[in-house]
Amino acid sequence: MPSEIDKIDLDVFDAIAHLPPAPILLVASGDSEENWNVTTIGMFNVFSLFPVVVGIGVKTSRNIYRLIADSDDFTINVPSTDLLNAVEVCGKELGAKKNKFKEAGITAVKGKRVKSPIVKECWLNIECKKMGSTKKSVSAINVGELDIGDHTWFLGQIVHTDVWNNYDRAKSLLYWDGEYRTADKLLKKVP
Ligand SMILES: Cc1cc2nc3c(=O)[nH]c(=O)nc-3n(C[C@H](O)[C@H](O)[C@H](O)COP(=O)(O)O)c2cc1C
């Protein structure tokens, strides 16, 4: 193990960039088929194991922010390397009216236990009910939404998960400091 003398100081941003790679996700929401949409999200964390609660960090300026804020649920969809192009399309500003499923050539299918859609082509689909129950209860609205700085964390309890049989999770797409990767291979460096 290196001694303390081998350590160097990092500024805060560099420290975050040095964290181990995180999954890149296609997050979808909308409580009716007409307003279903999907976006690329990198900020993700597990917040509780009993119950299983996960969170995604979303800027209020995103169209998906409004969709999730107005819905009871959202889905987290884990893409494989062959969905890199779809991830890039869904990560671009296309305007509130654009259906990113269509633009990215991916398929929206209604979730099994939520109103939001899942992305059919993703190998892992996680259906989440927003913490704090339904949007109808004023007191509940903010229970599952943490406004921390420039991103709001939506917390969701996992209510259903679909996974492809025999999928090699090493083929999951990761995003780390401007690079799309798998756990073992650099696929593309963003200019
Ligand atoms: C690799 C990558 C990761 C991203 N991660 C996040 C994120 O964690 N939170 C966020 O609010 N936006 C994130 N974005 C930006 C949104 O995907 C982007 O602004 C998108 O255009 C928002 O679409 P919308 O306004 O239709 O929801 C990310 C984009 C990319 C390409």
Descriptive overview:
There is one protein chain. By secondary structure, the protein is mostly beta strands. It has a single domain (8-185), classed as Electron Transport, Fmn-binding Protein, Chain A (Pnp Oxidase, Chain A), CATH 2.30.110. Helices cover 13% and strands 36% of the residues. The longest helix has 7 residues, at 63-69. Residues 136-141 have low confidence and may be disordered. It binds flavin mononucleotide. Flavin mononucleotide binds next to β3, β5 and α2.
Give a quick precis of the structure.
With 191 residues, the chain is mainly beta.
Distinct helical segment count: 4
> Which molecules are bound besides the chains?
flavin mononucleotide
Instruction: Tell me the helix content.
Output: 10-25%
CATH C-level label: Mainly Beta
Keywords for this structure?
single chain, 191 residues, mainly beta, Pnp Oxidase, Chain A, eight-stranded antiparallel sheet, binds flavin mononucleotide
